Amino acid sequence: MLNSSSLLLLLSNNLFLQSALALSLSLFLHFIKIPSLLLSALFTYVHPDDVAPSNASSNGVRAAIRRPGVNDSELKPRRKSKERFEFDENKAQIFRLKLSDGHLQTRIYFVDFRSAFNSVFVSLSCLLLHCFLKKSEDSGVVKNGSFVPILLGVLGVGRIFVLFVKISFERSASKLADKQLSVVLGFLGFVVAVVLVHGVVGKGIFDVCFDAVHGFEKLFIAIFMGCISCFLYMPAVRITHAFWLGTDQLRCNLPIVSCGWFARLLLHANYLFMVFTSMLWVKPFADLLLIDQNVRTEHVRELVGNVGMQKSEFSNFRLWCLLVSGLLQILSLRSNVQMYLNEAVFCWYQRLHASKVPDLGYSRAKVFLHNHFVCLAVLQFFLPASMVLLFLGLSQVGDNLLTNCQGICSLFPCSLLDKEVTLFMAWLVLFVWMIYTSVTLALFRQGILYVS
């Protein structure tokens, strides 16, 4: 039997604490369905079917009534009255329902969202615990307890990639033109990444360093950048639609479409903070915030003088900004999902008032698809923020934890888990997300794109 000192040593072991936390959280999330609570009480909409056919007798031939003794030649031609189209008001009805756990269980991709949320939550919890535990990098990955957060973090990123591939090939969720454009953008992202990782261009533009990676690792990073450029296009367009409707940029003043002041504040804060955080890795902008005179150019010194932060303070500041940006995206998840559902109502409202005899077939299909693919939209809003947080957590695990393990490094390129590389990947996801969102917002502002 274990004595008190052995039991105390076991309980203070980092590996034991990490394993206990992972197992207990997995068991807790199995019974407490946080994903269902996160989406519960959101309003979804159902368009009724057109079950009342038009009256056939109203357009039929009517018998003419003649006076007795009047010949057909004496009959004066009568003007044919214009055909009256009577719109059935039952076709204009739309029903609003509150999402519950029973409704969510029937939606496609809800199981994927629940498993992704649980795995990301457990991984981030273990990464957070690792930051507060006493550890020694010389003791190795297993004894140090870092093996559990590293393994869960890598598996979480892998699960996110699999889900991105899965939802990108969903046929009815997006237009074929959008899918083709996302593939083109992915190829362009790969080409730009190859140029960037080899240091041909970008040294004076972006504050990134690839000295720790060589050969195959650089190719892997380029492929990753191409995949991110491909996968993030359609989610970015969707979140731009949600921002456009939620902040009432159309000035339609429809309470059923726009959101409240707090949700609107979250949407604005999420976008503005995402733009600010992405610019922290752009050297001309970062030089304005640094007090290091060796970094500043002459015009920067004249503009801001000695106002700014030291290099170490600036590095920590960027980490906190990445963390806050990822958390803001998670906090605005409900608002974005509600705006995604309200987009179908806005389409129905447009079709209803477009003409005297509205054709609601398109809006009926729109309402159905938004209701059917609501959990796919949830994944598109949730996965990019989760990837940012996971890469940020992996960047804080340690620099030399895996490089000393030759057995692991022979199977896995450990240099990809270098602090600078994982931090670059976290920033890259946010940067590509920001570029797509900003360009789409500009196209909305110019009237080239519109919500319909």
TrEMBL record:
Superkingdom as given in the UniProt entry: Eukaryota
**Any matching Pfam family:** Tmemb_161AB
- Identify one Gene Ontology CC term for this UniProt entry: membrane
Keywords, alphabetical: Glycoprotein, Membrane, Signal, Transmembrane, Transmembrane helix
Q: How does it sit in the membrane?
A: Multi-pass membrane protein
| InterPro entries for this protein | Transmembrane_161A/B
Q: What is its main location?
A: membrane
Query: Where does the UniProt annotation place the signal sequence?
Result: 1-22
Q: Does the keyword Cytoplasm apply?
A: no
As for subcellular location, the record says: Membrane
**Keyword Cell inner membrane attributed:** no
Q: Which residues cross the membrane?
A: 15-32, 116-135, 147-169, 181-201, 221-240, 261-282, 317-333, 373-394, 424-444
* Family per similarity comment: Belongs to the TMEM161 family.
The molecule here is called Transmembrane protein 161B
